[in-house]
Design goal:
The protein is of the alpha/beta class and 583 residues long. The protein contains 21 helices and 21 strands.
Length: 583
Amino acid sequence: MNYLMRTSRSFSLLANTYLHKMMKKKNMKYILVTGGVISGIGKGVIASSIGRILKSNGYEVTSIKIDPYINIDAGTFSPYEHGEVFVLDDGGEVDLDLGNYERFMDIKLHRDNNITTGKIYLDVINKERRGDFLGKTVQVVPHITDAIQEWVEKVAHQPVSCELQPEICIIELGGTIGDIEGMPFVEAFRQFQFKVKKENFCCVHVSLVPQPKATGEHKTKPTQASVRELRGLGLSPDLIVCRSEDAVNENVKQKISNFCHVPPEQVICLHDVRSVYHVPIFLEQQGLVGFFLDRLQLPIRQPSSSEESIKLSAEWRNLAEKFDHLVREVKIALVGKYTSLEDAYASVSKALQHATLHCNLKLDLQFIAAADLEREMQTNNPIRYHEAWQKLCKADGVLVPGGFGSNGIEGKIAAIEWARKNKKPFLGICLGFQLAVVEFARNVLGWEDAHTIEITQDKAKKNVVIEMEEHHTGIMGGTMRLGKKATMFKTQDSILWKLYDKKQFIEERHRHRYEVNKAFVPEMERAGMKFVAEDESGERLEILEVEDHPYFVGVQFHPEYISRPLKPSPPYLGLILASSGRL
């Protein structure tokens, strides 16, 4: 009898747990953000802003970015392809839009929050090889589309902040409607809207409204065509966000409403604003919270304290207002390899901006191509050479970010030497950290042949930076030292230790294959370069500082990845404070 009662209770508990999970899955709300006419019109910022305003109203929000390319992830891309490679806590190398989501919503995403065609097809092919389809012909419909839907549902329920279950999942579909690469995803969501029911699915379409100079008036035809194509594929937009350079008048808005079968109040015209921090405020003013409450049948929710909600909103509004009214500038020279595309250093730029806003300063970021600082350029193109050095000399601080390859290496080393000798505040990130070691070995210790093995590829040379053999597998994708790692401070005589609130250890995200050679460290430390922190094993060096310098810091990790608008990264904050004479 007791056995039967225990069995009954166990079954009841299992049933209740199953029902609870099913109810949670049923109640998940999905917001799909699609784009029309052209790519690069701000879908990522709009998706992030929607998440921000929903989270500020008390909802747990997560996000998914879909990239229709066949690459498994973004790790093997040149930054010139899609901008920077963003790294997550779990080591996922993902699209830079996930950085926007994390910064705006203050969440921590996972590698599976970035879906690519390559990931989906690999998943389906692996299932086919295992025999999971029981001999059936594997096709785009239903197998690929089913795999997409299953992936979205699985990822949407993963906690991304405080271990709380997300309630709303914002999905950004990369590219534009009509791209052949995105067709399987559009079909998957056509089916998905019926699977999860209308009250749990909403489609936001972002489109361009151009204004040709010849006529001077906004043209709605591209948006009409884009919405028509979206409808033809089985998805109807509930909300249309019209992007334009200048503000769109009411007649244009009414025309889009008439021809796209959407009520006027559900056509949002978002023109270029002074900063991305204004976008959530603008969308909130257009009544988006009320729209989502009604369309997705969301319960009226506030954070645990109404004061917290007011404070959060006030902080963000103050941030946007501060950005507009700052006058005093700080000039930072970013010496890098990919300077012709600013998105290649998106997180670095944002981290600098967060730090300058915190210090009530306006950022004047000067991009300098490292190759332009090299001696060969003085002969090949003296104008570019002198302009690059003029920019560097006028800077208040110098930053050398991460990167790969030999291009511009000597220019970066020259910039580091100039910053060290002239007592200019300097921050080296990843490769910048390693090259600071090379520069010090050459110009302070007199080791003229000192270099990094990444460039020499010769173990017989004096390599002060060496390879991590376990991360050189012959396969490029996903094999670096990636993700969140602990860093332990060895001393309290450190600028960064103080900037990190005197914590004994910190956790930052990494992305590298090379490390400083510990064999040369004793000689360097005797000469004035101090390695103040290392990893948990004590094998890998993480932070360096140079004595008798206002701020000469190098870090092996990438602190920009976890910088937030209201919580700036300590190394970047230190650079801005030192560059403005306030450290």
